[in-house]
Amino acid sequence: MQEKGTISIHTENIFPIIKKFLYSDNEIFLRELVSNAVDATQKIKRLATLGQYSGELGDVTLEVSFDEKKKTITISDKGLGMTAEEIKKYINQVAFSGAEEFVEKFKDAKDANEIIGKFGLGFYSAFMVADTVEINSLSYQEGAEAAKWTCDGSTTFEISASDKKERGTEITLFINKDSEEFLDKWKLQGILDKYCKFLPVPIKFGTKTESVEDGVDDKGEKKWTSVEVDNIINTTAPIWTKSPSDLKDEDYLSFYKQLYPMGEDPLFWIHLNVDYPFNLTGVLYFPKVKNEFELQKNKIKLFSRQVFITDEVKDIVPEFLMLLHGVIDSPDIPLNVSRSFLQADSNVKKINSYITKKVADKLSELYKKDRKAYEEKWNDIGLFVKYGMLSEEKFYEKGKDFTLLKNTNGDYFTLEEYREKVKATQTDKNEQVVYLYATDLEKQDGFIQSANKKDYDVLVMDSPIDSHFIQHMETKLEKTQLKRVDADVAEKLIQREDGYANLLTEDQSKTVKEIFEKAISNTNYTIEVEGLSPEESPVTITMEEFMRRMKEMAATGGGGMGFYGAMPDHYKVAVNGNHPVIDKLLKTEDEAEKARLAKQVFDLALLSQGLLTGKDLTAFVKRSVELI
């Protein structure tokens, strides 16, 4: 048998395009060729199961090997194999119509993934790294003759008889000069680990040394000896392919360690398994997210029939679920170009919704099953849940029943429970229920204590997205307002009709204001003399709630908030006209002493907010010593 011919693509330009435009992602050649070999192996196993192949299957292990001297990489399988006619049919006729139109369309393409796969070019990815490719194959069909196909990267090929004796296909790549980096054991091992670690057929890549037990020594202790064994690089039946009823907690934890060897144990997990209206399997883990969610993203791996595709799954998984870890496997996710990029079609949207629902159902189940255990996990999963509430309306509707609020006493409440707790004491004159919160328990302790004296409850809101979550809660909760506990003096946080009157006359208030303006001499502070409880501090410094919230949202990447982030900090200075110190200040005749006393109580207020630093702090300490 001897035949020469031309690959049916009607143009001389196809291979230069493959080599040039696919070069940026050239390691995928190995994934494509190994995947093809797995497909061929799976098919022969299926035929044997159906009784359509009566021969011995034997050992169906695939093998990947390389020869650094000959500059070759070989992928061998014991699958279906091909006859000469099948090689001509499946290999020579590149699967697209209008080759000239194809060349024109993609001649300026910058992305390899616009080409591979879309036009049946999986096999031809071999030419990204090889000058010449040989296929040596023997079909499973009775009486079939082995055939050898050779192509040197042009559009001409040659088919001849082969002396191959075993069923299957052997593809040999003669690596080009620019791709000799792939003639390295660790480089190839890395690619196989990345893409082929969970393929359903054993893949051998060389050998490895293992220690095996070899009897006992004279002292009765075990002896070990080193032996060379096949280096099987993959686990053929990962846990997501199994039934949850067949798995134990240690199986899930062991698999997590396999995926993330340096990772801390996850909190819990969800096993996905659905076959209608789409096929989807996988395991999603809830990591201990805490306050580092940006560092946690892109930890979900996407597979298609156990072939690794990508860890960029934002089209399949909602943004907030990108914080999860684990794997998703679906043959129904539409993948174009080399299976690497996703198309947003109806299946993807259905899968997206399904995953959101499963996560919400799992959290709801955990909350209802063991409230105390759920509360113990809240510090780790709270940021994740709030992120979901912010970004996904359907998740909010479910999540509002298992989202918890934590107060400064360490008690937890659902949204409904908390409203019932505070509405009697924290409803203002406009019938708005006011939730007070702290972002820094140490820094805001004085304000928290002042609020507690008035029987107000204070929430802890210290995660990176709480400024956004607070804003979202106000839009969702009816007649509810949230204020940071240091947004104003305790008397003013919740406006009531029965507030304290200012005991100073109008002229006295004006005088006090002028004294403080002169002592402070800073336009970033607005001074107001107010009637407050004599037990409150003589001076309190606060930032107006709206402005501070906008600045916090700008700091955490709030869209359109950059304007506020660039504005200088501006504070309100509330002088308590009913405090004895202010009365003393008014009775002091020495102007310098008045200024010194005003500056002292102002600096005390700065100190309580952590705003007194540098030379001002040094001067305050010196002044305090003098006043003792």
From TrEMBL:
SUPFAM superfamilies: ATPase domain of HSP90 chaperone/DNA topoisomerase II/histidine kinase, HSP90 C-terminal domain, Ribosomal protein S5 domain 2-like
Gene3D superfamilies for this protein: 3.30.230.80, 3.40.50.11260, Heat shock protein 90, C-terminal domain, Histidine kinase-like ATPase, C-terminal domain
UniProtKB keywords: ATP-binding, Chaperone, Cytoplasm, Nucleotide-binding, Stress response
InterPro entries cross-referenced by the UniProt entry: HATPase_C_sf, HSP90_C, Hsp90_fam, Hsp90_N, Ribosomal_Su5_D2-typ_SF
Pfam families: HATPase_c_3, HSP90
A molecular function (GO) term: unfolded protein binding
Residue positions binding ATP: 32, 36, 77, 82, 97-98, 169, 339
Family membership: Belongs to the heat shock protein 90 family.
Protein name: Chaperone protein HtpG
